[in-house]
Amino acid sequence: MRRRACGFVLAVAVLCRGFGAASPEQSLREAARRSGMLIGAAVRPEQLSEAAYASTLAREFNMVEPEDALKWEVVHPERESFDFSPGDQVVDFASRHDMKVRGHTLVWHRQNPKWLTEGNYTSGELAEILEKHIKAVVGHYRGKIFAWDVVNEAFDELRPGELRHTIWRDQPGIGAVGGGVAAGYEPRTSSNPARPELAARSSQQPYFYIERCFRWAHEADPQALLFYNDAEAEAVNPKSDAIYAMVRDFRERGVPIDGVGFQMHIAKLHADIASISANIQRFTALGVQVHITELDVALPVDAEHNSRPEDLQSQADIYAQIAAACLSHRLSHSGCTAIQTWGFTDKYSWIGSHSKQTEGAALLFDRTYRTKPAYLRLRNALVLD
Ligand code: XIL
């Protein structure tokens, strides 16, 4: 009702703004400020020199995340050398424009350099390499990156509820597969003094290797918020059930985890909003934050990258509904606290190459930086009544 009234006269529009609907000139970041939300985008440093890219990013968002610049193949190209310059460009941009930075990602099975994947290391060597990597990267950005995706996509969608086989887990693994403890590694006594019996549980878990990564990251920057991030776990399903069990166990035993990231790459214009909302609710009830980390809504496109007008409207509905689901679980310092899209302009989005150019148009701005219907709907959703 209020929104329809907003169209009439300026005075009413001003009133409407006061009551909660976004006014036309408001940016996403202004809208987000009123509800205390973080609104972010994944970014590529090589695009920051493009004026329209940089000005749109700075105007609309209060958070950024390097899309690829902190992955192993970029940041750790040789065993003995790190390249922080692409990541630093993003961090510098963020500091000039008063934006927060999320870090992505310290432990993943993709985008790893050959020296790592083909190095035939023993478990002990791999554990040492991983610990050094986590401590070097988190240490370099200590005080600058406020939240890290420590581990990304560790659960396997093809074997519901089970961990993926990766170099980190068991190929050869860092020596911490369920039941097996790395040589020379002393499992900690429980960090929860009220529940000493929980200590024994630690090294028995199949996700014990993940626990070690969180502890290393915490040692490198005790202030940083540490997240577990995954795909296809946004609704209640066997994968999110398994993640939930792990996070609950971590919280009970005092493993330093602060949040869970749901990627939210929406395919086929299908999102089960009720289930997404219930899932956000159960995770926030564990006392961890939820961030929506990689939101995009892919549409079918023709060879000229055009999508159908009706699909743009359905896409807008989904953006608005997901934002509303997040905001409905917003508490003062916890709950669902951030919404981040995976890129922001359709000009640069991973969906094109990922779908062999059959899909695209997944983001809030078109290829010429004009806002799409999804932009307006998301902006309105960000303004709490
Ligand atoms: C994608 C990037 O967007 C691409 O530029 C890169 O070529 C491949 O990776 N889940 C994740 C992200 O966690 O890191 C992925 O990013 C998309 C899927």
Characterise the protein shown here:
Strand 4, helix 9 and strand 5 form a beta-alpha-beta unit. Strands 1-2-3-4-5-6-8-10 form an 8-stranded parallel barrel, surrounded by 6 helices. It contains 14 helices and 11 strands. Helix 8 packs parallel to helix 9, helix 11 packs parallel to helix 12 and helix 12 runs parallel beside helix 14. By secondary structure, it is α/β, with parallel strands linked by helices.
Describe the structure using short key phrases.
385 residues; alpha/beta; 8-stranded parallel beta barrel; two-stranded antiparallel ribbon; 14 helices; 38% helix; binds (3S,4R)-3-hydroxy-2-oxopiperidin-4-yl beta-D-xylopyranoside
Helix-strand layout with pairing:
Layout: H1 2-5, H2 10-19, H3 28-35, E1 38-43, H4 51-60, E2 63-66, H5 72-75, H6 85-96, E3 100-107, H7 114-117, H8 123-140, E4 147-152, H9 208-220, E5 225-230, H10 238-253, E6 259-262, E7 265-266, H11 273-284, E8 289-297, E9 299-300, H12 309-327, E10 336-341, H13 350-354, E11 359-360, H14 373-382
Parallel strand pairs: 1-2, 1-10, 2-3, 3-4, 4-5, 5-6, 6-8, 7-8, 8-10
Antiparallel strand pairs: 9-11
Helix pairs in contact: 3-14, 8-9, 11-12, 12-14
Q: What is the H/E order?
A: HHHEHEHHEHHEHEHEEHEEHEHEH
> In angstroms, what is the radius of gyration?
21 Å
**Total number of helices:** 14
* Helix amount: 25-40%
| β-strand amount | 5-15%
The major pleated sheet works out as: 8 strands, parallel, barrel
Question: How far is the first residue's CA from the last residue's CA?
Answer: 13 Å
Widest sheet, order of strands: 1-2-3-4-5-6-8-10
Q: Which ligands are bound?
A: (3S,4R)-3-hydroxy-2-oxopiperidin-4-yl beta-D-xylopyranoside
Class based on secondary structure composition and strand pairing? alpha/beta
User: Any idea what the shape is?
Assistant: globular
- Unreliable spans are 1-20, 178-189
Number of strands: 11
